[in-house]
Amino acid sequence: MKSLKSREKNNFFYRNGLSIVVLSLFILFLFFQFITGWHVKNSELAEVKMPPLSLYQYFCSPHFMQATFENWESEFLQMGMYVLLTISLRQKGSAESKSLNEEEDVDQEPTAHKNAPWPVKKGGIVLSIYKHSLSISFLILFLLSFIFHFIGSFNNYNEEQIEKHLQTLKWNDYILDSQFWFESFQNWQSEFLAVASIVLLSIWFREKGSPQSKPVDAAHDDN
Asked: What are the transmembrane regions (predicted)?
């Protein structure tokens, strides 16, 4: 029995199952978004008596670009802000919060040891950057997604204006337009609602076996 469990733990899927499943679901739902978005766009084109787009044309279209990066932008903003806010802010009783009273391992200064990541061994400015590399990574991903969302939204807006024989906008006018910011804010608010939900619901509710939950028998006030 022990050797069987040992073999299971050495299995690639056992060691990487969470990322494999999550990435597989991402690809699956992105594919469904692509197919349904293609149908939506072609329906809109049919209404103005324009020829439909092929799958390749839709893949390169601003409609698909805008819809995709609009969502990615909000996800990276959510995760980046969550990483930063949980450094100093606490929530009594939440499984998502650090302890109210005790210092935790993540607060300690890194020390170089044989298995430490190379920036820790290198020290200096490399280590200073590495200590904040997670939030920096999310910031870069957010900014890139924000830029691509804007490009897709701007081009998609002007395409729709041309289809309707209406006036187009320049990019410096569009960035001040309510349409672009409506697309962003409607996603941003939902992301922080999701974060608030896991922070607050984990105070009173449990999920046995999940690291996002406190032990089932833990008191509501425990962190």
From this structure: 12-35, 129-151
Distance between CA atoms of residues 76 and 135, nearest Å:
10
pTM of the predicted structure, to 2 decimals: 0.89
| DSSP labels, the chain | -HHHHHHHHHSHHHHHHHHHHHHHHHHHHHHHHHHHHHHHHHHHHHHTT-PPPPHHHHHTSHHHHHHHHHHHHHHHHHHHHHHHHHHH---TT-TTS--SSS--GGGSPP---TTS-HHHHH-HHHHHHHTTHHHHHHHHHHHHHHHHHHHHHHHHHHHHHHHTT-----HHHHTTSHHHHHHHHHHHHHHHHHHHHHHHHHHH---TT-TTS--TTS-TT--
